[in-house]
Hints:
Layout: E1 6-10, E2 16-21, H1 22-30, E3 34-38, E4 43-45, E5 50-52, E6 56-59, H2 74-80, E7 95-99, E8 114-118, H3 119-125, H4 148-156
Parallel strand pairs: 1-6
Antiparallel strand pairs: 1-2, 3-6, 4-5, 7-8
This protein binds zinc ion.
Amino acid sequence: MGPRLPVLVLNQNYEPLNVCNVRRALVLLDRGKAETIENGRGYLRSPTALFEIPSVIRLIYLIRRPRPQGRLTRRDIFLRDQYTCQYCGKQTKELTLDHVLPRHRGGGHEWSNVVAACKPCNHRKAGRTPPEAHMQLYREPYRPTYSYFRTFYHYLEAQEGWRKFIPGSEANFGFA
Ligand SMILES: [Zn+2]
């Protein structure tokens, strides 16, 4: 388990960049490309040495690259829609994903075509568009502005210690 544990990689300016595993982090540290910001996860033994297992590392040089977008998950959509059905407005954690233009009619799995829907609404809409089903969207689906929290939240449950490095991670919808 040790070598595969996730390690949070911060840019030189402390911006969260991505997540790698301990093995990769140790290579970056060994080559002088990163420094340890947090460890305290115990030790990893190689035949010749003992390494402290890092939890958070920071790159020595600033990396310029687009912000990671990650894949679009159910929870991304539920967070954007604040766990609210986009047809009836009910707030619940019993949600499904609804493709506004159904997938079998060419609707994409993308921010602008996916909304949170409660089970009764999803059932009622079935494989139709909202007008065909005589249903109205609460709000047009949209791509939200970039959020570090949305990019990294799925690690936070297991990695509480990362919270202070992830801007916006104090946000919590109760269900999230
Ligand atoms: Zn509903």
